[in-house]
From TrEMBL:
Subcellular location: Cell membrane
UniProt family annotation: Belongs to the glycosyl hydrolase 56 family.
GO cellular component, as recorded: cytoplasmic vesicle; plasma membrane; side of membrane
Species in which this protein is naturally found: Zonotrichia albicollis
Enzyme Commission code(s) on record: 3.2.1.35
SUPFAM superfamilies the record matches: (Trans)glycosidases (SSF51445)
GO molecular function: hyaluronoglucuronidase activity; hyalurononglucosaminidase activity
Protein's name in the database: Hyaluronidase
Function: Catalyzes hyaluronan degradation into small fragments that are endocytosed and degraded in lysosomes by HYAL1 and exoglycosidases. Essential for the breakdown of extracellular matrix hyaluronan.
Swiss-Prot/TrEMBL GO biological process terms: carbohydrate metabolic process; hyaluronan catabolic process
Membrane topology annotation: Lipid-anchor; GPI-anchor
Length: 427
């Protein structure tokens, strides 16, 4: 394993052994875990990754499953041409028919009821918070208002809007909550959650380039807190740190990413009494240079989901994965695992004491010096895995029966998507 990876030679023998196992690998508490998702050719030696998966139709029973709108039940939405599908809006759909169809989609893509993994519901057409359905999603507000007007044609616009918002948000909540509950009952070992949740909406960099702070607006943080019903039902969070080209290679990109990740971590720790939800962040390869930002905000768990390309682009990806990215993966992974072992006895992950401090967590070599150990103890502390507590995770904790199972210690992951380089977006 070490010989075949060339520049990745600092990978420990123990890690190499674990990487070489099949899809039956145990879900061990790890400081970092990597996943590759391929949609065709294999661009790279997959042994650099812990697990591999594909979003393609023919692949089932994987360690990560993405449920697009056509793969799970009867999701209501409008097409780009304005045609209603499954009722268009949640309050005009049949929830009972949707729930009856859920099992079919779940059993098709996750065949074993005991299999562990990540299950991401990718429903992007509408947002459950009424105020967040701005253009082009305002069709959902207009349709909701139209349903109210049909029943109450004499109502003034203000009353129509208030009732439409209430009906839409109530139905959206019920639709999403019951979907999660049903899915968890069918596949309880999966970490179920919705793609793009939570969001931060910190996009004011185009208007305030010089004064941009990256901070999530207070109103959006408040709206995220209003979604406590979603966080309580979710088994994991799947936000995005996709960057606008305006942010590429600018200091503002770091502010943008930091704020979105920290908001996800805030949500993950707020709505469950005895555990934090694991967080998996989506990004794109174009922005890999920004990934070191994550090592500077105390987040130490990655997952890479990489749909592969073809021909020349595939070779470029292969070179990148086994070159710069591969070295970075091994470097940061090794550092995180060494920190976990040194400070937390391997029973927790290291968090930055000051989440805004610029204290990178990586080394050129895989061994810790006494100065390195002092650096860790000065700038990091332990966030213990489920079942452990104490400053060094040295004490067993009581049982946490409601926590999300063996994969919960993952904490935070990064989902790296290459599909858009080679394939058009799914309809």
């Amino acid at each position: 394993c070490l010989k075949q990876h060339g520049p990745l030679q600092r990978l420990s023998w123990a890690r190499c052994s674990w990487l070489g196992c099949s899809s039956g690998c145990p879900a061990l508490p790890r400081s970092f875990i990597f996943r590759e998702v391929t949609s065709g050719k294999i661009c790279s030696d997959q042994r650099i990754f812990d697990l591999a998966a594909s979003p393609n139709e023919g692949f089932v029973g994987q360690n990560l499953t993405i449920f697009y709108k056509e793969r799970l039940g009867l999701y209501p939405y409008y097409t780009r041409q304005g045609v209603a599908v499954n009722g268009g809006v949640p309050q005009n759909s049949s929830l009972s028919e949707h729930l009856a169809r859920l099992q079919e989609g779940i059993e098709k893509y996750i065949r074993s009821s005991t299999k562990e993994g990540l299950a991401v519901i990718d429903w992007e057409e509408w947002r459950p918070v009424w105020a967040r359905n701005w253009k082009p999603k305002d069709i959902y507000r207009e349709a909701s208002q139209g349903l109210v007007v049909q029943r109450h044609p004499t109502w003034p616009p203000e009353k129509v809007n208030k009732q439409a918002a209430f009906e839409f948000e109530s139905a959206a909540q019920e639709f999403m909550v019951k979907t999660l509950r049903k899915a968890k009952s069918f596949r309880p070992k999966q970490l179920w959650g919705f793609y793009l949740f939570p969001d931060c909406y910190n996009h004011d960099y185009s208007k305030n380039k010089e004064s941009y702070t990256g901070q999530c607006p207070d109103v959006e943080k408040s709206r995220n807190d209003q979604l406590k019903w979603l966080w309580k039902e979710s088994m994991a969070l799947y936000p995005s740190i996709y960057l606008d080209p305006l942010l590429d290679s600018t200091p503002n990109s770091r502010k943008f990413v930091r704020a979105r990740v920290m908001e996800a971590m805030r949500i993950s720790q707020k709505h469950h009494d005895d555990y934090s939800l694991p967080v998996f962040v989506y990004t794109r390869p174009t922005y890999l240079r920004k990934l070191n930002v994550l090592s500077q905000v105390g987040l130490h768990h990655w997952d890479l989901l990489i749909p592969s390309a073809s021909s020349e682009l595939c070779q470029l990806m292969k070179n990148y994965l086994e070159g710069d990215l591969g070295r970075y993966i091994v470097n940061v992974t090794t550092a995180a695992e060494l920190c976990s072992t040194t400070l937390c006895q391997g029973r927790g992950r290291c968090l930055r004491q000051d989440s805004h401090a610029d204290r990178p967590l990586f080394w050129a070599e895989g061994q810790l010096s006494s100065a390195d150990t002092l650096f860790l103890r000065t700038h990091f502390h332990c966030h213990c895995y489920q079942g452990w507590q104490g400053s060094g995770c040295q004490t067993r904790a009581g049982p946490r029966s409601h926590a999300p199972g063996p994969l919960a210690p993952l904490g935070l992951g990064v989902l790296l998507l290459l599909a858009s380089w080679c394939y058009p977006p799914l309809d």
